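Side project, low priority. Logging it here so it doesn't get lost.
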Amino acid sequence: MNPRDYYLNILAWGLLAALGVPSASGQESARDWASIVGQRFRAERDVVYRTAPDGMELKLDFYMPYDKKPGPTMVYIHGGGWANGSKEQYVLWYLPYLQLGFRVVAVQYRLSGVAAAPAGVEDCRCAFRWIARNGAKYGVDPDQLILTGGSAGGHLVLLTAMLDDSFDAACGGTGPAPRARAVVNYYGPADLEEMFVAGQPSVLKWLRGPGDQRALARKLSPLRWVRPGVPPVLTLHGEADKTVPVSHGIRLHEALTKAGVENRLVTIPGGAHGRHTWTDADTIRVQRTIEEFLGKHAAAGRPSK
Protein backbone atom coordinates (compact mmCIF):
# COMPACT_ATOMS: atom_id res chain seq x y z
CA MET A 1 0.00 0.00 0.00
CA ASN A 2 1.47 3.38 -0.96
CA PRO A 3 1.49 6.27 1.57
CA ARG A 4 -1.48 8.03 -0.05
CA ASP A 5 -3.64 4.91 0.25
CA TYR A 6 -2.50 4.27 3.81
CA TYR A 7 -3.47 7.71 5.05
CA LEU A 8 -6.77 7.66 3.15
CA ASN A 9 -7.64 4.42 4.90
CA ILE A 10 -6.64 5.74 8.31
CA LEU A 11 -8.77 8.86 7.76
CA ALA A 12 -11.74 6.83 6.59
CA TRP A 13 -11.79 4.36 9.44
CA GLY A 14 -11.09 7.10 11.97
CA LEU A 15 -14.13 9.02 10.76
CA LEU A 16 -16.28 5.94 11.24
CA ALA A 17 -15.20 5.77 14.87
CA ALA A 18 -15.74 9.48 15.40
CA LEU A 19 -19.24 9.36 13.98
CA GLY A 20 -20.20 6.27 15.93
CA VAL A 21 -21.20 4.29 12.84
CA PRO A 22 -22.88 1.04 13.95
CA SER A 23 -21.53 -2.39 13.12
CA ALA A 24 -22.62 -3.92 9.81
CA SER A 25 -23.09 -7.24 11.59
CA GLY A 26 -24.77 -5.80 14.66
CA GLN A 27 -22.43 -7.85 16.86
CA GLU A 28 -19.91 -5.17 17.87
CA SER A 29 -20.13 -1.68 19.24
CA ALA A 30 -19.39 1.19 16.86
CA ARG A 31 -15.98 1.65 18.47
CA ASP A 32 -15.11 -2.03 18.21
CA TRP A 33 -16.22 -2.25 14.59
CA ALA A 34 -14.21 0.83 13.64
CA SER A 35 -11.18 -0.76 15.29
CA ILE A 36 -11.36 -4.00 13.32
CA VAL A 37 -12.94 -2.89 10.04
CA GLY A 38 -9.48 -2.69 8.45
CA GLN A 39 -9.16 -6.43 9.06
CA ARG A 40 -12.40 -7.03 7.13
CA PHE A 41 -12.12 -4.66 4.18
CA ARG A 42 -9.30 -3.80 1.85
CA ALA A 43 -8.76 -1.51 -1.12
CA GLU A 44 -7.39 -2.51 -4.49
CA ARG A 45 -6.70 0.61 -6.48
CA ASP A 46 -5.95 1.50 -10.08
CA VAL A 47 -7.31 -1.59 -11.78
CA VAL A 48 -7.26 -0.80 -15.52
CA TYR A 49 -10.60 -1.39 -17.23
CA ARG A 50 -9.95 0.37 -20.53
CA THR A 51 -7.27 2.05 -22.61
CA ALA A 52 -8.85 5.03 -24.36
CA PRO A 53 -8.12 5.80 -28.03
CA ASP A 54 -5.64 8.49 -26.92
CA GLY A 55 -3.71 5.88 -24.92
CA MET A 56 -4.95 6.96 -21.49
CA GLU A 57 -5.41 4.06 -19.08
CA LEU A 58 -8.72 4.35 -17.22
CA LYS A 59 -8.92 2.78 -13.79
CA LEU A 60 -11.18 1.51 -11.02
CA ASP A 61 -10.76 1.36 -7.25
CA PHE A 62 -12.33 -1.60 -5.40
CA TYR A 63 -13.26 -1.59 -1.70
CA MET A 64 -14.13 -5.12 -0.68
CA PRO A 65 -14.08 -7.72 2.08
CA TYR A 66 -10.91 -9.79 2.35
CA ASP A 67 -12.85 -12.98 1.64
CA LYS A 68 -13.91 -11.63 -1.79
CA LYS A 69 -17.22 -13.45 -1.45
CA PRO A 70 -19.51 -12.05 -4.18
CA GLY A 71 -22.06 -9.59 -2.93
CA PRO A 72 -24.05 -6.44 -3.77
CA THR A 73 -21.88 -3.68 -5.17
CA MET A 74 -22.22 0.09 -5.35
CA VAL A 75 -20.65 1.61 -8.47
CA TYR A 76 -19.72 5.21 -7.65
CA ILE A 77 -19.18 7.82 -10.40
CA HIS A 78 -17.81 11.13 -9.13
CA GLY A 79 -19.01 14.59 -10.06
CA GLY A 80 -17.21 17.84 -10.78
CA GLY A 81 -18.89 19.41 -13.78
CA TRP A 82 -17.43 16.73 -16.10
CA ALA A 83 -14.19 18.72 -15.68
CA ASN A 84 -12.88 18.04 -12.17
CA GLY A 85 -12.84 15.41 -9.45
CA SER A 86 -11.36 11.95 -9.12
CA LYS A 87 -12.31 8.45 -8.04
CA GLU A 88 -10.37 9.02 -4.80
CA GLN A 89 -11.82 12.42 -3.92
CA TYR A 90 -15.08 11.20 -2.43
CA VAL A 91 -13.77 8.13 -0.61
CA LEU A 92 -15.45 9.18 2.64
CA TRP A 93 -18.86 9.06 0.95
CA TYR A 94 -18.29 5.35 0.28
CA LEU A 95 -18.23 4.45 3.97
CA PRO A 96 -21.99 4.20 4.60
CA TYR A 97 -22.26 1.71 1.74
CA LEU A 98 -19.53 -0.48 3.23
CA GLN A 99 -21.34 -0.31 6.55
CA LEU A 100 -24.54 -1.49 4.84
CA GLY A 101 -22.77 -4.53 3.41
CA PHE A 102 -21.94 -3.31 -0.08
CA ARG A 103 -18.69 -3.55 -1.93
CA VAL A 104 -17.82 -0.24 -3.62
CA VAL A 105 -16.20 0.39 -7.00
CA ALA A 106 -15.09 3.94 -7.84
CA VAL A 107 -14.81 4.85 -11.53
CA GLN A 108 -12.32 7.06 -13.33
CA TYR A 109 -13.46 8.58 -16.63
CA ARG A 110 -12.02 11.11 -19.05
CA LEU A 111 -12.74 14.66 -17.95
CA SER A 112 -13.68 17.45 -20.35
CA GLY A 113 -10.15 18.87 -20.36
CA VAL A 114 -8.94 15.56 -21.77
CA ALA A 115 -11.76 14.59 -24.12
CA ALA A 116 -15.05 16.17 -25.12
CA ALA A 117 -18.43 14.46 -24.82
CA PRO A 118 -19.48 11.76 -25.25
CA ALA A 119 -16.10 10.31 -24.15
CA GLY A 120 -16.94 10.31 -20.44
CA VAL A 121 -20.28 8.62 -21.09
CA GLU A 122 -18.60 5.89 -23.14
CA ASP A 123 -16.03 5.38 -20.38
CA CYS A 124 -18.70 4.92 -17.71
CA ARG A 125 -20.66 2.48 -19.87
CA CYS A 126 -17.47 0.52 -20.58
CA ALA A 127 -16.56 0.53 -16.89
CA PHE A 128 -19.98 -0.84 -15.97
CA ARG A 129 -19.66 -3.63 -18.54
CA TRP A 130 -16.15 -4.44 -17.31
CA ILE A 131 -17.22 -4.59 -13.67
CA ALA A 132 -20.07 -6.97 -14.46
CA ARG A 133 -17.86 -9.17 -16.61
CA ASN A 134 -14.67 -9.19 -14.52
CA GLY A 135 -15.65 -8.14 -11.02
CA ALA A 136 -16.22 -11.56 -9.46
CA LYS A 137 -12.60 -11.86 -8.37
CA TYR A 138 -13.06 -8.60 -6.46
CA GLY A 139 -16.24 -9.73 -4.72
CA VAL A 140 -18.73 -8.23 -7.19
CA ASP A 141 -22.04 -9.97 -7.83
CA PRO A 142 -22.88 -8.90 -11.42
CA ASP A 143 -26.59 -9.35 -10.71
CA GLN A 144 -26.47 -6.98 -7.71
CA LEU A 145 -25.10 -3.72 -9.12
CA ILE A 146 -26.33 -0.31 -7.93
CA LEU A 147 -25.16 3.00 -9.46
CA THR A 148 -24.68 6.24 -7.56
CA GLY A 149 -23.12 9.64 -8.13
CA GLY A 150 -23.66 13.35 -7.62
CA SER A 151 -24.03 16.31 -9.98
CA ALA A 152 -22.17 15.38 -13.19
CA GLY A 153 -21.76 11.96 -11.58
CA GLY A 154 -25.53 11.80 -11.10
CA HIS A 155 -25.97 12.58 -14.78
CA LEU A 156 -23.47 9.88 -15.73
CA VAL A 157 -25.03 7.18 -13.54
CA LEU A 158 -28.45 7.93 -15.04
CA LEU A 159 -27.05 7.56 -18.56
CA THR A 160 -25.07 4.45 -17.60
CA ALA A 161 -28.31 2.86 -16.42
CA MET A 162 -30.61 4.16 -19.16
CA LEU A 163 -28.75 4.24 -22.50
CA ASP A 164 -29.16 1.48 -25.04
CA ASP A 165 -26.32 -0.68 -26.31
CA SER A 166 -25.64 1.58 -29.30
CA PHE A 167 -23.33 3.61 -27.08
CA ASP A 168 -21.15 0.61 -26.25
CA ALA A 169 -19.32 -0.03 -29.52
CA ALA A 170 -16.24 1.60 -28.02
CA CYS A 171 -16.19 -1.02 -25.27
CA GLY A 172 -15.28 -3.81 -27.66
CA GLY A 173 -17.78 -6.16 -26.03
CA THR A 174 -20.69 -8.07 -27.43
CA GLY A 175 -24.10 -8.90 -26.05
CA PRO A 176 -26.49 -6.80 -24.02
CA ALA A 177 -25.18 -4.47 -21.35
CA PRO A 178 -25.65 -5.46 -17.71
CA ARG A 179 -28.66 -4.01 -15.94
CA ALA A 180 -28.35 -2.02 -12.74
CA ARG A 181 -30.70 -2.96 -9.92
CA ALA A 182 -31.24 0.71 -9.13
CA VAL A 183 -29.79 4.22 -9.28
CA VAL A 184 -29.18 6.69 -6.44
CA ASN A 185 -29.00 10.06 -8.19
CA TYR A 186 -27.76 13.09 -6.28
CA TYR A 187 -28.89 16.24 -8.16
CA GLY A 188 -27.81 15.05 -11.59
CA PRO A 189 -28.74 17.22 -14.62
CA ALA A 190 -31.70 15.65 -16.41
CA ASP A 191 -31.97 18.11 -19.30
CA LEU A 192 -28.55 18.92 -20.77
CA GLU A 193 -30.13 20.72 -23.72
CA GLU A 194 -31.71 23.26 -21.39
CA MET A 195 -28.34 23.91 -19.74
CA PHE A 196 -26.64 24.16 -23.14
CA VAL A 197 -29.11 26.76 -24.35
CA ALA A 198 -28.67 28.68 -21.10
CA GLY A 199 -24.91 28.77 -21.72
CA GLN A 200 -23.85 26.80 -18.65
CA PRO A 201 -20.02 26.94 -18.88
CA SER A 202 -19.24 23.37 -17.81
CA VAL A 203 -21.79 22.00 -20.28
CA LEU A 204 -20.43 24.14 -23.14
CA LYS A 205 -16.88 22.99 -22.40
CA TRP A 206 -17.85 19.33 -22.27
CA LEU A 207 -19.94 19.50 -25.46
CA ARG A 208 -17.34 21.36 -27.49
CA GLY A 209 -16.25 19.87 -30.77
CA PRO A 210 -17.56 19.32 -34.28
CA GLY A 211 -21.15 18.59 -35.17
CA ASP A 212 -24.46 19.77 -33.79
CA GLN A 213 -23.69 20.40 -30.14
CA ARG A 214 -27.29 21.10 -29.20
CA ALA A 215 -28.36 17.78 -30.73
CA LEU A 216 -25.63 16.07 -28.69
CA ALA A 217 -26.88 17.81 -25.54
CA ARG A 218 -30.36 16.48 -26.29
CA LYS A 219 -28.98 12.99 -26.90
CA LEU A 220 -27.10 13.02 -23.61
CA SER A 221 -30.08 14.20 -21.56
CA PRO A 222 -31.44 11.49 -19.22
CA LEU A 223 -34.97 12.74 -19.91
CA ARG A 224 -34.47 11.62 -23.50
CA TRP A 225 -33.96 8.00 -22.33
CA VAL A 226 -36.82 7.60 -19.87
CA ARG A 227 -38.92 4.61 -20.89
CA PRO A 228 -40.59 1.59 -19.30
CA GLY A 229 -38.12 -0.94 -18.00
CA VAL A 230 -35.28 1.32 -16.93
CA PRO A 231 -34.00 0.66 -13.39
CA PRO A 232 -35.65 2.24 -10.34
CA VAL A 233 -34.31 5.70 -9.50
CA LEU A 234 -34.01 7.56 -6.21
CA THR A 235 -33.35 11.28 -6.81
CA LEU A 236 -32.08 13.56 -4.05
CA HIS A 237 -32.06 17.28 -4.79
CA GLY A 238 -31.70 20.54 -2.85
CA GLU A 239 -34.52 23.01 -3.37
CA ALA A 240 -32.06 25.95 -3.41
CA ASP A 241 -29.67 24.36 -5.92
CA LYS A 242 -28.59 27.09 -8.34
CA THR A 243 -26.16 24.94 -10.33
CA VAL A 244 -28.63 22.22 -11.27
CA PRO A 245 -32.11 23.59 -10.46
CA VAL A 246 -34.46 21.31 -8.58
CA SER A 247 -36.72 21.43 -11.63
CA HIS A 248 -34.43 18.83 -13.18
CA GLY A 249 -35.20 16.40 -10.39
CA ILE A 250 -38.91 17.20 -10.53
CA ARG A 251 -39.14 16.71 -14.29
CA LEU A 252 -37.20 13.45 -14.11
CA HIS A 253 -39.48 12.19 -11.35
CA GLU A 254 -42.59 13.10 -13.35
CA ALA A 255 -41.27 11.47 -16.54
CA LEU A 256 -40.27 8.26 -14.77
CA THR A 257 -43.63 8.08 -13.01
CA LYS A 258 -45.46 8.58 -16.30
CA ALA A 259 -43.40 5.76 -17.84
CA GLY A 260 -44.31 3.44 -14.98
CA VAL A 261 -40.76 3.31 -13.58
CA GLU A 262 -40.45 2.91 -9.83
CA ASN A 263 -38.83 6.07 -8.52
CA ARG A 264 -38.81 8.57 -5.71
CA LEU A 265 -37.83 12.23 -5.39
CA VAL A 266 -36.60 13.58 -2.06
CA THR A 267 -36.01 17.34 -1.85
CA ILE A 268 -33.98 19.17 0.76
CA PRO A 269 -35.53 22.50 1.86
CA GLY A 270 -32.89 25.20 1.58
CA GLY A 271 -30.40 22.66 0.25
CA ALA A 272 -27.77 24.04 -2.13
CA HIS A 273 -25.65 22.18 -4.66
CA GLY A 274 -23.43 19.64 -2.93
CA ARG A 275 -24.15 17.36 -0.01
CA HIS A 276 -21.55 19.14 2.08
CA THR A 277 -23.89 22.17 2.15
CA TRP A 278 -26.79 20.25 3.71
CA THR A 279 -27.48 20.14 7.43
CA ASP A 280 -26.55 17.06 9.41
CA ALA A 281 -30.23 16.38 10.03
CA ASP A 282 -31.04 16.48 6.31
CA THR A 283 -28.05 14.31 5.45
CA ILE A 284 -29.14 11.68 7.97
CA ARG A 285 -32.73 11.86 6.73
CA VAL A 286 -31.49 11.30 3.19
CA GLN A 287 -29.32 8.38 4.31
CA ARG A 288 -32.28 6.66 5.98
CA THR A 289 -34.21 7.07 2.71
CA ILE A 290 -31.32 5.54 0.77
CA GLU A 291 -31.24 2.60 3.15
CA GLU A 292 -34.95 2.01 2.67
CA PHE A 293 -34.57 2.23 -1.11
CA LEU A 294 -31.57 -0.10 -1.25
CA GLY A 295 -33.26 -2.54 1.08
CA LYS A 296 -35.88 -3.06 -1.63
CA HIS A 297 -33.47 -3.48 -4.52
CA ALA A 298 -30.38 -5.30 -3.25
CA ALA A 299 -29.41 -8.03 -0.84
CA ALA A 300 -27.58 -5.42 1.21
CA GLY A 301 -28.90 -2.07 2.27
CA ARG A 302 -30.64 -2.85 5.53
CA PRO A 303 -28.79 -1.29 8.46
CA SER A 304 -28.31 -3.27 11.62
CA LYS A 305 -30.36 -2.19 14.61
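Brief comment: The chain has a mean pLDDT of 88.
Revisit when time allows.
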